[in-house]
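User: I'm new to structure prediction. If I give you an amino acid sequence, what do you actually give back? Let's try with this one:
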Amino acid sequence: MMGKKAILAGATGAIGSSLLQQLLADRNYSEVLVLVRKKLELKNPKLKQIILDFDKIKDFSHEITGDVVFCCLGTTAKQTPDKIEYRKIDYQYPLDMAWIAQVNGAESYHLISAMGANKNSSIFYNKTKGEVEHDLKAVPFKSIHIYQPSLLDSSRTDKRFGEGLMNKIMHVINPLLVGALRKYRSIKVEDVAKAMVNQSLEDKKGIFTYESDKIQELSAKKSQI
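Assistant: Good question. You get back a string of structure tokens that encode the predicted 3D arrangement of the chain. For your 225 residues, that looks like this:
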């Protein structure tokens, strides 16, 4: 039986890189199509790469086909201080990819958002994340899955000093965050990626939003497939 085909954008980020490795290793996926600006120095028989300028993604519409879409695109104010460019990466590109993939037959979409996403927020970052969540729901996928992780615990080499310090603090605080506060615990990027893979293998219909504690729970779940 043929496996699923994944479409992944944001494969070079902390979550995206972990997700890519997990998809390539998962027997339920026969092909992983990544949309990247620069070719990845990675070889795998299941990996297919499309090198593109996301501003011109529509030029590649006929190639962006698959069953499941994973969007891990995102930036920071430090990386992208220009708010117009920032919004394109966090808002426009995920939506452009969603519409193209859905028209081409994709049935589910998995979006990395953030804790605090709110389209009515006065904070630009939270507002942008909230807006993309809101507008994504208009795309007629069979299922849409939105992940809102808390502070990411990552071993990536470009981790900023502030993130590293905060993660050390959270390792001490995490056990104290119980009950309704569990969603504020830091979470490993590998666990976020695992939750996404697990949910992509479920036959679901509807729109689902997962806060960090639920993501942690989903990462430990064994797939029924």
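You can read the tokens as a compact description of the fold. Here is one thing that stands out. Helices lie at 14-25, 83-103, 124-136, 161-173, 189-200, 212-219.
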